[in-house]
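Researcher: Next sequence.
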Amino acid sequence: MTINILLVEDQKLIRVGLMSLFEGDLKITSEAQSGKEAVEKYRTEKPDIILMDIGLPDISGIEATKRILETDNSAKVIILTSHLSEQEVLDALHAGACAYAMKDIGTDILQMVIKTVHEGAMWLDPQVVPVLREKNCGVIPPRQMSRAMFKEQHANLTQREYEVLKLVVDGLSNNEIAQELTISEHTAKAHVCNIIQKLVVDDRTQAAVKALKEGLV
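Model: Next structure:
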């Protein structure tokens, strides 16, 4: 099944670059260079996914997202931007965006995000999560879990693996996890590998997505 994508981006070079990334079951079938154009094209074409920039020449991508969701609350918008302010992240999520990704995201990860959102999940760039947690804004509430409750709900992960998973979600590398938990980098890597296996995912990014989707952290 082909996933049809509306690309909303005012910079031609970026549009051309993104057009070259997708093939097979992902296809950019329409483009818009402004927020108002994006709203109109969604209403007439009903794409499966909207890749939405924030900085647009008329209304912002956040406002365009809000207007699209007011038209159709089942629309699936992925914010793809270089903006990382707390307020813009919050505004985008409150407007109804399903995902918030930075423009330095890897091609394979972006493709995974599109498919994940198309299946009904939400996704946040690892760079975004610490911003929200630091401000304790409530979009991703801090979750304290007793050891007994943890074992009851997630018995397949050890308490240490749970701690490592939280740091993976925060975007830390194996080396940074090792420093944070005062363990060796080899041990940190082993924990990450175990987590990936137990969560039945392919990589640490998918582990972070699943953790957020299922409320594991």
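Model: Confidence is low (pLDDT under 50) at residues 140-153. The two ends are 32 Å apart (CA to CA).
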